[in-house]
Amino acid sequence: MQIKSLLFHLTALSIITIIQTAFLSSLSLPFNSLNLVLLTILFLLFIENTNLAYIYTGILGMSLDLYSIYSFGIITISLFLSLLIIDFIYHNILTNHSFFTLIILFSIFTLLNYFFKLSFIYLSYYIGLSDYLIKIKLIYLKSFLYEFLVGVIVIMFVYFIYYSLNKKLKLFFLTK
Amino acid sequence: MFYQKKKKYFIIIIFALLILLHYLGALKPLEAIISQTFDYGEKYVYKIGNKIKNVANKKRKISELKKENYQLSQAINKLIIENSKLKKVQRENILLRKQLKFYQKRNYKYKLANIIAKNLINENLNYFVIDRGEEDGVKNGCPVLAEDGIVIGKVAKVEKKLSKVFLLSSDYCKLAATIQGNNNTSGLIEGELGLSIKMNYIPQDAKISQDQIVVTSGLEKYIPAGLVIGKISKVEANPSELFKQAIVKPLVDFNKLTIVSVIIP
Questions:
Q1: pLDDT tens digit sequence for A62-99
Q2: Across-strand partners of B259?
Q3: Contact at 8 Å (CB) between B226 and B218?
Q4: Dihedral through CA A142, CA A143, CA A147, CA A150, nearest 10?
Q5: Is the pTM of this model over 0.80?
Q6: Does B53 touch chain A (CB under 8 A)?
């Protein structure tokens, strides 16, 4: 059973990495703005699979770091820090499992991830670890906006599919 | 509850240690295995994505065309779908033949590479990832070429089995260049926001015109002279300034690239 679940998670992690790095990145705006990694982590946290969310963060973050032009670790650390804050907010402030909670959490998660990533990129540049900076220009802000909008649309679909499936499962259980 | 909390911090510590191990070089073999495992799938997934993007772009253009062109475009699309498999193989074949011909003519050492990924989300630096790295002799600053030996970018970061390449249109790609047939007027090729390529630092007294060919000057360590970069599409001259500028049009569509080659030292 454990081997089965391990294989399932490894396959899921590989598929998410390949889709994010090779497939989505080759598409044009707005489709290349979909942050599948962020959505997966948030959804795992939302369905109360907190530890798995942390493990996915580490593995997906490091996989993306392999393909990133910036210093290794920036994506992983940014994701971990954002997740710690989101985890705190979810379990202490926004504790209900509503759709709006998910949207608010996603907004905060996206903003925090951007903030931490940019901070670490600038930090690594000034301490000499990296030679490249993100120049914040209109085109960059546009991609951020797209990431948010595309994310919200996908969340809507995933949430309602998950909710309806869960409902069906409950009904099925009762009729049995 | 306390155990649960402890567990997540334990996970974070493990990954922090892994990042540290990366910088110590201890993870290199593992990273090489991971990137090699992903490489095969990514190569094909990237090609599929690229194809979808091109079809989507084509469809957008079709909607802008007049009615009389509509039927013709539809027929072309049908043919493209019908022959897609054959064309894919044919295109790869032509690319490889062209590259082979180019390298046979000149005596460069080169490695063919597949593009396996492009700039990650919110990293608008215009770079792509190829499946050749340190192990294949790729070094920072090596030129990356499309078919017929047209320069498309420069290697920016090398891993064991992967390399990250800046496209010429990237803000961070700079290349020493000369204008052919013009007493070898030199300048510096620089990308602009990932959208266009400019040749800067051209002396005001240099006589340059549209359609002249821009080539590498050979002043950089791993970049030989005479590799074609593009064609001048516009000259911008302001008499009050010290230098002229020229907009350079690349001879290949960067969006359609799937196979490239790297000249190695």
A1: 988 888 888 888 999 999 999 999 999 988 888 777 78
A2: B114
A3: yes
A4: 70
A5: no
A6: yes
Q: At what angle do helices A74-92 and A50-67 cross, to 10 degrees?
A: 160
8 Å CB contact between B187 and B179: yes
Q: Where are the alpha helices (DSSP H) in B83-182?
A: 84-105
Residues 180-239 of B with CB under 8 A from A: 193-194
Give the whole-angstrom CA distance, residue A90 versus residue A84. 10
Q: Nearest-CA distance from A144 to chain B in Å?
A: 7
Query: Each residue of A111-161: pLDDT tens digit?
Result: 999 889 889 988 888 888 777 776 666 666 777 788 888 888 988 888 888
For residue B106, the Cα-to-chain-centroid distance in whole angstroms is 22
Q: Is the dihedral angle over the CA atoms B250, B96, B89, B75 positive or is it negative?
A: positive
Whether the CB-CB separation of B48 and B56 falls below 8 Å is answered with no
**pLDDT number for residue A167:** 64
B7 touches chain A (CB under 8 A): yes
ipTM of the complex: 0.70
3-state secondary structure B178-237: EECCCCCEEEEEEEECCCEEEEEEEECCCCCCCCCEEEECCCCCCCCCCCEEEEEEEEEC
* Nearest CA distance, B148 vs chain A (angstrom): 23
Select the residue from A25, A44, A115 to test the B interface by mutation, using most B Cβ atoms within 10 A: A25
Residues in chain B, total: 265
Alpha helices in chain A (DSSP H): 2-18, 36-46, 50-67, 74-92, 99-126, 138-175
Whether B123 sits inside 8 A of A18 (CB atoms) is no
Distance CA A110, CA A143 (A): 12
A150 neighbors A34 (Cβ within 8 angstroms): yes
Cα distance between residue B139 and residue B136, in whole Å: 9
Asked whether B144 and B261 are in contact (CB, 8 A), the reply is yes
Question: Cα(A42)–Cα(A130) distance, rounded to whole angstroms?
Answer: 29
A77 — contact with chain B (CB < 8 Å)?
yes
Please give the helix or strand (H or E) that residue B134 lies within, else none. none
What DSSP assignment string belongs to B50-69? HHHHHHHHHHHHHHHS-HHH
pLDDT digits (tens, 9 = 90+) for B146-180: 867 788 899 988 888 889 898 888 888 888 888 87
What type of residue is B40?
A: Y
Exposed/middle/buried for A15, CB within 10 Å: 0-12, 13-18, 19+?
A: middle
- State what percent of residues in chain B have pLDDT above 70: 80
